[in-house]
């Protein structure tokens, strides 16, 4: 079951309330919660792959943490990054490994 998301309201609620609402209620409340269609674990792997491919490392860091919470193991994250290195770029893989080492340090 997807955890209720409040990051939009917590970070942008007063500054950009509509964006915060769309983030929390639509993206996470409606899309991420459709676990009968695609598990949160699978959504996390897909999201991390997309963010790494685009070089969006601040967002990748938070989604990598979420991926770990959603059951993506260190070995799986290493394999995702290694695989993507050939499609998204070697420097992006190096950057993603830096995040993964930090996030999965206790594994």
Automatic annotation (TrEMBL):
Classification via InterPro entries: 4CMD/NDH-1_regulator (IPR052512), AhpD-like (IPR029032), CMD-like (IPR003779)
Keywords: Lyase
Record keyword Lyase present: yes
Broad class of enzyme this protein falls into: lyase
GO MF, one annotated term: 4-carboxymuconolactone decarboxylase activity
Ranges where the Carboxymuconolactone decarboxylase-like domain occurs: 17-101
SUPFAM superfamilies with a match to the protein in the record: AhpD-like
EC number: 4.1.1.44
PANTHER family assigned: 4-CARBOXYMUCONOLACTONE DECARBOXYLASE FAMILY PROTEIN, BLL4600 PROTEIN
Name of protein: 4-carboxymuconolactone decarboxylase
Record organism: Pediococcus damnosus
């Amino acid at each position: 079951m997807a955890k209720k998301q409040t990051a939009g309201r917590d970070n942008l609620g007063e500054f950009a309330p509509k964006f915060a609402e769309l983030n929390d209620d639509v993206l996470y409340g409606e899309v991420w919660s459709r676990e009968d269609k695609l598990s949160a674990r699978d959504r996390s792997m897909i999201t991390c792959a997309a963010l790494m491919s685009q070089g969006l490392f601040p967002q990748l860091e938070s989604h990598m943490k979420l991926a770990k919470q959603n059951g993506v193991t260190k070995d799986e994250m290493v394999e995702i990054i290694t695989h993507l290195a050939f499609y998204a770029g070697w420097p992006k893989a190096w950057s993603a490994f830096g995040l993964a080492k930090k996030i999965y340090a206790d594994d």
